[in-house]
Amino acid sequence: MKNYYLYLIRHGITQGNLDGKYIGQTDLSLCPDGASTIRSLRDMEVYPSVQKVYSSPLRRCLET
Questions:
Q1: Alpha helix (H) residue ranges in 1-64
Q2: Is the pTM of this model over 0.85?
Q3: pLDDT means per 10 residues in the chain (64 residues)?
Q4: Is 13 strand, coil or helix?
Q5: How many whole angstroms separate alpha carbon 21 and alpha carbon 15?
């Protein structure tokens, strides 16, 4: 039997997150700090190596 792993990764920080707003389906991009944090995590190889990625079509998710 082959094992599969499912990784759930939350999107990076948006300005709405910093403002304490519930943004739901609002299509916000990552804020500069959010994008910087995601790049740092990528460079430190925190994220696992995967074969497929499924994402919401919202900008903050695709940018992450």
A1: 15-18, 32-43, 59-63
A2: no
A3: 91 92 86 96 92 93 94
A4: coil
A5: 9
